[in-house]
Amino acid sequence: MGVHLDGSSGGxxxxxxxxxxxTGRRRRMKAERARIAAESLVPGxxxxxxxxxxxxxxxxxxxxxxKLRTGQLVVPESVAALPMFAELVVEGAAAEMPAETxxxxxxxxxxxxxxxxxxxxxxxxxxxxSIRAVRAAAS
Length: 139
What we know:
The chain is mainly α. It has 2 domains: about 25-80; about 85-139, no CATH class. It is about 40% helix and about 10% strand. It has 6 helices and 2 strands. A two-stranded antiparallel ribbon has the order 1-2. β1 (about 105-110) and β2 form a beta hairpin. α1 (about 30-40) packs across α3 and α2 (about 45-55) crosses α3. The longest helix is centred in the C-terminal third of the chain and has 15 residues, at about 125-139. It is elongated, with a radius of gyration of 22 Å.
């Protein structure tokens, strides 16, 4: 038939994806958009890489992140309940404390310029939501 789909000299297409529908656009559910936006907020994640992985543009991901921050999108509970890892930093003064000093059991979490201090009996779900809220507000 002799139809060229791209400008390459070989005339071959390495990948062709056909999206059905009247406009050829993808229709993503709000939960999917929120999940993709949340994935881009993970420390070390690249918005461009996340967008490429999900077949969207980085501008859409930035828009979804904005909607996530303003509450127009909400991360599904199934994603919010997934464990997230944070960097552990042991400061020199804490490492050099004498053994006879009583140490209260607890955790101090620093996210940007916000410090969250909790005891050993802290509710995991509440702590996870607090950390995510601080991260979302910081970005």
